Amino acid sequence: MAPIIFVLGGARSGKSGFAEERTRRFAAQENVYIATAECRDAEMESRIALHRARRGADWRTVEAPYRLAETLSAESRSDRAMLVDCLTLWLTNHLLADADLDAEGDHLAAALAAADGPVVLVSNEVGLSIVPENALARRFRDEAGRLNQKIAAIADEAWFIAAGLPLRLK
């Protein structure tokens, strides 16, 4: 079974940069960045541009805002390292599409278990703050927590990033 690395942290904590460096350590023939964001406005376009510039040209990007498990299965090879950034955007896409979130999470876990090459996954920790005032935000927070637990349970390594500092959890 190929290694699964889970990187968790808050907004602007340094988790994506850490995950990129962790992915490069596999020294694979190819690094594949699996992007889950949908560019819906100028601010998100700017965020995506910053991520691309930091990664550089040695990454191949595949967009998978919904079909993440299928993308992992299609892209998985023993000589290829994959980085998924990020699970909370993927979850948001499915939440807003009124998808079966448990089934999507199980499908993702199965694809990770079957991966031929290493996979690094990034997710936001959104449960460390106050309880949100609206039902959708509370549901998102709860579903993100459940998804993070599911992925952390199957990961070979789990890291928490705060203020740019990595803390190994597992």
Describe the protein.
- It is a single chain.
- With 170 residues, the protein is an alpha/beta fold.
- The chain has a single domain (4-168), classed as P-loop containing nucleotide triphosphate hydrolases (Rossmann fold), CATH 3.40.50.300.
- It is 44% helix and 23% strand.
- It has 6 helices and 7 strands.
- The chain has helices at residues 15-24, 42-55, 68-75, 87-96, 101-113, 135-154, and strands at 4-9, 30-35, 59-63, 80-85, 119-124, 157-162, 165-168.
- Strands 3-2-4-5-1-6-7 form a 7-stranded mixed beta sheet, with helices on both faces.
- Helix 4 (87-96) crosses helix 6 (135-154) and helix 5 runs parallel beside helix 6.
- The model has no long low-confidence stretch (mean pLDDT 94).
- It catalyses: adenosylcob(III)inamide + GTP = adenosylcob(III)inamide phosphate + GDP + H(+); adenosylcob(III)inamide phosphate + GTP + H(+) = adenosylcob(III)inamide-GDP + diphosphate; adenosylcob(III)inamide + ATP = adenosylcob(III)inamide phosphate + ADP + H(+).
- InterPro entries: CobU/CobP (IPR003203), P-loop_NTPase (IPR027417).
- Belongs to the CobU/CobP family.
- It comes from uncultured Pleomorphomonas sp.
